[in-house]
Design goal:
By secondary structure, the chain is an alpha+beta fold. It is 44% helix and 18% strand. Strand 9 and strand 10 form a beta hairpin. It starts with a helix and ends in a 9-residue tail after the last strand.
Length: 437
C-alpha cells in the first residue's frame, strides 16, 4: 500500500500544471548547509536533489572509473545492512534513491513520502555516510560496469566520443570515459572505493534543492541529519583542461554501414555574459526540432541524415560547441562539406530577424514546460546553483531572451563560430573524405 501511495504521489507531482513562476526560498541549516526550497504542500511527498561538485574528474591517476564504481555501489549495503537488507528497507518505506556519477558532479536523487521522511532520510544517510563496499557487492557491480565498457568498444557513437575527448583534452581526466577502462576497473579495490568516497562526498562541495511537503525549519534539520557526518573537505578539484585541437578531420576506420560524425570546437563558459545569446543562436543553427539550419540543409534539402544537432557544452573545466550526426559511408564527405559550409555561413552572415524571432518564441514557450513536477523542479534548482545563477533567474529568463537583439546575436555568431577551428571526428568507412589535420 505504501508503494502504491508513493506511485500515486509521483503521478500527481508530475501532472501538476507547468509553472515557471516558482517561489524559491534560500535555507541555511543550523550546521551551515545551504539549500533552495520550493514548498508544495498539496501532496505528502518530497523530492530532494543533491550534487557534489568534482565527480569522476577526481579519479586518481591510474584509477579511472573509481568514482563511477563507488557511486554505483552506494546502495549495495550500508551500516549494518547488506545489499538485500538495504533494498528491502527502501522498498518498505516506498522511497526512491538514485546515484549517478558524471565527470563534473555526483548526483543523488531521493523521493519519499512525508509520513516516512525521517526513516527515509536516515536510510539515505547510511548510504552516503556508511557505505559498506562489501567485496561481493563490488564484484557484482564491477561486472556490470565492465560489460558496459566492452559494449561501448564496438559502438561507433562511443568511439567517436572517446576519440574526440582524447584528441581534445590530452592528459586531463576529460580525455577518458568516466567509466574507466577494462584494465583500470578490473584493478579497483574496496579500499579504492573508500578513497573515492572521501574525495568526492564532502560538505565543501554540496548543492541541495528540495521541492514538496516540507518547511524551511524541517529542511534545515533534515540537511544536518543527512549530511552532517560527511567529511568536511574533499580532494582538490582538477585544473582547467587545455584544449588541443586546431581544426581538421580525424577518421577512425570502423566496419559499419554508416559513418558517425562528431564536430565542433571551443565554446563559452556558462558564466560568460554572452552565453544566453549563444544559446539562442545555437537553437537557430542546430537546436532541437526540425527547424534548425543544419536539419534543413543536411536532412531536408539533401537527405544526408535522419538527424543532426549541436549544443553548447559548458563543462566545469572546459567549454565546447559540439554537434553529431550519422550518414551513409558513401555520403560522409558531402555531409562534412555541408556542415563546414553552414558553419562558415553562420559566422560570416549571421542569422535573420525571422530566425531570431522564431527561436525566441520557441524557447520562451518551452521554458515553463520544464517545471512539470516536483522532481523536475528540484533538478533544475540544483543545476542553477551549480551554474551560480540566482533564484530570480527563473522569473527573468524569458525577459532576457526577448531582450536579445539581432546585432547581439550576429556578433556572438561571428565571435563564437570559427570555421577554421572546426574539428571533425568520423568513425566508419567514409567515402570522399580524407583525414586532414
Amino acid at each position: 500500500m505504501i508503494r502504491i501511495a508513493l506511485a500515486a504521489c509521483l503521478a500527481l507531482a508530475t501532472a501538476l500544471p507547468a509553472r515557471a513562476e516558482t517561489e524559491v526560498q534560500q535555507v541555511t541549516s543550523p550546521g551551515g548547509i545551504d539549500a533552495w526550497l520550493v514548498e508544495e504542500h498539496s501532496i505528502p511527498f518530497v523530492a530532494l536533489e543533491l550534487r557534489f561538485r568534482g565527480g569522476s574528474a577526481l579519479d586518481p591517476e591510474g584509477k579511472r572509473g573509481a568514482v563511477n564504481l563507488m557511486t554505483a555501489t552506494l546502495e549495495e549495503g550500508a551500516a549494518d545492512m547488506d545489499a538485500q537488507a538495504f533494498a528491502a528497507a527502501r522498498e518498505a518505506l516506498a522511497a526512491r534513491f538514485s546515484f549517478d556519477a558524471h565527470d563534473d558532479a555526483i548526483s543523488v536523487s531521493a523521493r519519499f513520502l512525508t509520513e516516512n521522511r525521517d526513516k527515509s532520510v536516515e536510510l539515505l544517510r547510511k548510504a552516503l555516510v556508511e557505505p559498506r563496499f562489501d567485496e561481493e557487492a563490488v564484484e557484482r557491480v564491477r561486472g556490470q560496469v565492465l560489460s558496459n565498457i566492452r559494449s561501448e568498444q564496438t559502438d561507433p557513437n562511443a568511439i567517436a566520443r572517446d576519440t574526440w575527448d582524447k584528441l581534445a583534452f590530452g592528459d586531463h581526466p576529460y580525455a577518458t570515459d568516466s567509466s574507466g577502462t577494462v584494465d583500470s576497473v578490473t584493478g579497483l579495490t574496496s579500499d579504492d572505493m573508500r578513497t573515492a568516497h572521501d574525495a568526492v562526498l564532502a560538505r565543501d562541495r554540496i548543492y541541495v534543492s528540495a521541492v514538496g511537503d516540507i518547511t524551511p525549519d524541517e529542511l534545515g534539520t533534515l540537511l544536518d541529519d543527512l549530511l552532517g557526518d560527511l567529511p568536511e573537505e574533499g580532494a582538490p578539484l582538477p585544473d582547467e583542461a587545455e584544449y588541443g585541437l586546431d581544426g581538421g578531420v580525424e577518421v577512425v576506420d570502423f566496419d559499419t554501414p554508416q559513418s558517425v560524425i562528431r564536430f565542433g570546437h571551443e565554446g563559452l563558459k556558462r558564466d560568460d555574459p554572452d552565453f544566453l545569446t549563444a544559446y539562442v543562436v545555437n537553437q537557430i543553427f542546430g537546436g532541437s526540432g526540425f527547424e534548425s539550419r543544419l536539419m534543413e540543409e543536411v536532412r531536408v534539402e539533401r537527405g544526408l541524415t535522419y538527424g543532426i544537432g549541436t549544443a553548447l557544452a559548458p563543462y566545469e573545466f572546459a567549454e565546447l560547441v559540439l554537434g553529431q550526426s550519422a550518414t551513409a559511408n558513401a555520403r560522409a564527405g558531402e555531409t562534412v562539406d555541408v556542415i563546414r559550409e553552414e558553419w562558415r555561413r553562420l559566422s560570416e552572415e549571421g542569422v535573420t530577424q525571422d530566425e531570431l524571432d522564431a527561436a525566441k518564441k520557441y524557447l520562451t514557450g518551452a521554458y515553463p514546460l520544464r517545471f512539470d513536477g516536483n522532481a523536475r523542479i528540484a533538478d533544475i534548482l540544483v543545476g542553477m546553483q551549480m551554474d551560480d545563477l540566482s533564484p530570480d533567474y527563473i522569473e527573468n529568463r524569458n525577459d532576457m531572451v526577448e531582450a536579445i537583439t539581432l546585432d547581439e546575436a550576429n556578433r556572438v555568431a561571428r565571435e563564437l563560430y570559427d570555421p577554421e577551428a572546426l574539428q571533425f571526428v568520423v568513425v566508419g568507412q567514409p567515402e570522399g573524405l580524407d583525414a586532414v589535420n
